[in-house]
Amino acid sequence: MKLSSSLMYAGNPRDAADQVQALERAGLDSIWVAEAYGFDSPTLMGYLAAKTETIEIGSAILNIYSRTPGALLQTAAGLDNVSGGRAILGLGASGPQVIEGFHGLPYAAPLGRTREVIDIIRRGMKREPLSSDGYFKIPLTKENGGVTGLGKPLKILTHPERSAVPIYIASLGAKNVQMTAEIADGWFPHLYIPEHAGKAWAEPLANGTAKRSADLGPLEVVAGALCAIGEGPETKALLDFARPLVALYVGGMGARDKNFYNQLFCEYGYEAEAKHIQDLYLDGKKKEAEAAVPLEVLELMNLVGPEGYVKERIAAFRESGVTNLQIMPASEDAPALVSRMKELINA
């Protein structure tokens, strides 16, 4: 099992990135760079590549709408070069609030576009001329929407560091998870609870794996959350720091009738709690929504408590199929926590 962490959306990401060197020395295997509608991931990933030597650097995630497949190919190849072959391309559909509200693009056909984008990128990394006749028309001709008629298939001008960059997909819904298990190198499930993951994803994962190419290795799974090791009640109290994030996603990330994370909580078995959190959040009662997140959920989702308990949570994540444990260190000495977590993982 690998150990990873992520840069946060808020604050000054340059300051956070400067700390990654210490985390790398402590044994962190991977660092993920979020984007949403904040600073773009590739800029920060390039900055990290220049400041680190061994850590894997992944986007988590780049959406498949606001950049063309050709631009995503260039980004993957460029980052892999400057990092010396340490890049991971994390992709996802994001959501209609970001795609239509921030980028001004229609949120249409997320599954079909994702599948097509990945196919184009993989062929492009092998320096095959880009071509597509699906959601993307490459090259554009006068017959399929071009203006000049001068478009022709082009292969990437430069030689990539590797002929393939690992591609991970962030997905939650059954059809999207099935596609992820079929075609991706790795999977980001958000708000992951090991004990309940099978209720939501066992069937789509099995269906996708059954169609998986022999050329792909086993699906990597990246999941985890807040992490702190300590004996006293002050350590358990740190779980409250996870409440705003859970309330935001379950209660406010989307409309009342279209919230992927709220639906996930229902599939976990928390239907009443999910509705209550959403009602409070959408009524503007954010603090009440945070307080309504069950303590049981926070305990199962995170790795916070005495060392023995944290070891049990590591085992639960591992047994559920997680291959890369993602932690958000809740500690004044994050490198020391990373070092200890590496020891517990490898024990």
What does this structure look like?
- The chain has 347 residues and is α/β, with parallel strands linked by helices.
- The protein has 16 helices and 14 strands.
- It has helices spanning 13-18, 20-26, 41-51, 69-82, 96-101, 110-125, 174-183, 194-210, 233-236, 243-252, 260-268, 271-282, 286-291, 295-301, 307-319, 334-346; strands at residues 2-7, 30-33, 56-59, 62-63, 87-92, 132-133, 137-138, 167-170, 186-188, 220-223, 226-229, 303-305, 324-326, 328-329.
- The chain has an eight-stranded parallel barrel, surrounded by six helices. It has a three-stranded parallel β-sheet with strand order 12-11-14. Strands 6-7 form a two-stranded antiparallel sheet.
- Helix 7 links the parallel strand 8 (167-170) and strand 9.
- Helix 7 packs across helix 8 and helix 10 packs across helix 12 (271-282).
- The longest helix has 17 residues, at 194-210.
- The protein is globular and about 70 Å long.
- The termini are close together.
- The mean pLDDT is 95.
